[in-house]
Amino acid sequence: LNLETSLRQALKRGELFLVYQPQLDLASGRITGVEALARWRHPEKGLIPPEKFIPIAEETGLILPLGEWVLRTACAQARAWQAAGVPGLRIAVNVSARQFNHPEFLETVERILQETGLDPNLLELELTESIVMENVQDAIMTLTDLKVRNIHLAIDDFGTGYSSLTYLKHFPIDRIKIAQEFVRDIPNDADDAAIVEAILAMAGSLNLEVIAEGVERKDQLGFLHQRRCKEMQGYYFARPMPAEQLAEIFSRGL
Ligand code: G
Ligand code: G
Ligand code: MN
Ligand code: NA
Q1: Could you point out which of 92, 104, 135, 196 has its C-alpha 20 to 30 Å from the C-alpha of 238?
Q2: What CATH code is carried by the domain that includes residue 133?
């Protein structure tokens, strides 16, 4: 059996699951959101990383049912946390190019929000620069449609694509996620430090929210904090984890 066939079956057999990685507001120390990340536990091969199965899903079109499953599961989980008394927790979901460009994407998102009863503002869609820059006019329309429905919009892996913040001011984007590759070697790498500083400064003047990804060490945190980066995500705070484990953290604190 090839990976495509087994991925198709995995969806039906419930071998996919989500883990959630906390996003922190440094000033309050509170978890303001979580990013949902897909995992696949293959009955024989064990855990298959998304780097392996997401590209296959994209090539084969399986990303459409898979992406819909991720969106529904993540929204239902966020709604359940809300019902359990975790206020205002936002759920971030990664969206692939094929999903975003599908003519029924908007309807699918709306239907899932209705089914799960999640406040649209508590859903954040993560899009990469390459997705929105591929076809700028269509992207602006789709993003605007999502934004008028009050859905939160983020640019993932910011800085790795070929867009610029000047360009992004034409998009109804709420926040940018500074890519892990720039965060990795701050504060020591002078180039990365300059890039991160520039992104933070420009985001500030364009009134965009910013979150730094891949924060693993205190020296990275210190650099970001000094430059007024308020939100962070990374192993330093918490790894992606199953919902049950996160529920414990919500009741106990990180
Ligand atoms: O969770 P991890 O850091 O291993 O994820 C690796 C890559 O897989 C990241 O680029 C992440 O965005 C992507 N990924 C994880 N889950 C999903 C998903 O549900 N949908 C899409 N499109 N990509 C995902
Ligand atoms: O492309 P995207 O940003 O969606 O991918 C997120 C990926 O980054 C996930 O696979 C997640 O497991 C991983 N990740 C999250 N925090 C850290 C971190 O602090 N260090 C490293 N190396 N990876 C991280
Ligand atoms: Mn992401
Ligand atoms: Na990212």
Answers
A1: 196
A2: 3.20.20.450
